[in-house]
Amino acid sequence: MTALSTASAFTTASNRFLSTISKNKHASSIFAEESMSSSASSAGPLATKPIEEGSHDELMYALGVNLARQLGDIRPLVENSQELTQLARGLLDAAVGKLNEEDQMKLLGRRGDDLNKIIIERANAIRQKLESAGKAMLKEMSENPETATLECGVIIHPLEAGPDGFGMGVKPTAASTVKVHYHGTLPDGTVFDSSLGGDPVSFPLKGVIAGWREGLQFMCEGETAMLGVPPEMAYGEAGTPDGRIPGGAALFFKIQLIEVMSAGIGGGPKLVGSNGQVLKKGGGDVKLLGANGKPL
Hints:
Helix content: 25-40%
Oligomer: single chain
Radius of gyration: 24 Å
Catalytic activity: [protein]-peptidylproline (omega=180) = [protein]-peptidylproline (omega=0)
Protein name: peptidylprolyl isomerase
Order of helices and strands: HHHHHHEEEEEHEE
Low-confidence stretches: 1-45, 282-296
Structural class: alpha+beta
Distance between the termini: 46 Å
Organism: Stephanodiscus triporus
Enzyme class: isomerase
Largest sheet: 7 strands, antiparallel
Shape: elongated
Mean pLDDT: 77
Number of helices: 7
GO molecular function, one term: peptidyl-prolyl cis-trans isomerase activity
């Protein structure tokens, strides 16, 4: 492989990896076995020197923060403070021109294959941890007598009844348009999407993931429930193109079905819990724990 093609392949793989984990707050702790505070203390006065508010230093610091936000969270790329130091050194040397274009291409040509390998290995490790956590959480949900597991594998935990009582009122069909509030997390508790803090969202069920389409048909207007969605009913092995949801990830949603806007039906199938009993009341406030030990 030529230096140019190796560097290009590395850039592509690196961008894909960063896209996958940059929004995953928990991912950094997967590899950071050695405290990152040690790297901060070894960084010298730059890590501790206070910046005066309104100063030119603060303006330049803000520029650095802005550039870092475009790059994404680099911590999951490294396992310890020594690796973090060398990564930061490479970023700075390339950014300020200490390494010219020719030197950069030579370096990436020489180590590009190794870089691709380590990026893939660490991305796969993150994915495996998320998959394992997701399976464990789905199993925990399914064993709760206040939940119901649908034939498709989606698990529903009713939380709050609608105005007509639990299990009473209008239910959507697969062709319905609904208005909802929702809060979606990965197994580690990372929030990947949420309408909370804003206006409710309206959309046709035919345009959402299969887990939503199936699960919401068992909810009545006004009810709130937790949905546990296995990966095959979400984004499968591919994940989302932007990397926000990794491949193989189970998803967990808290959903309030505010309104069935079209094609709703009355009655419908009953939810049966893991103990074989028809669910007749909401399960109260659920506190599912993510892999980081914090409630979702």
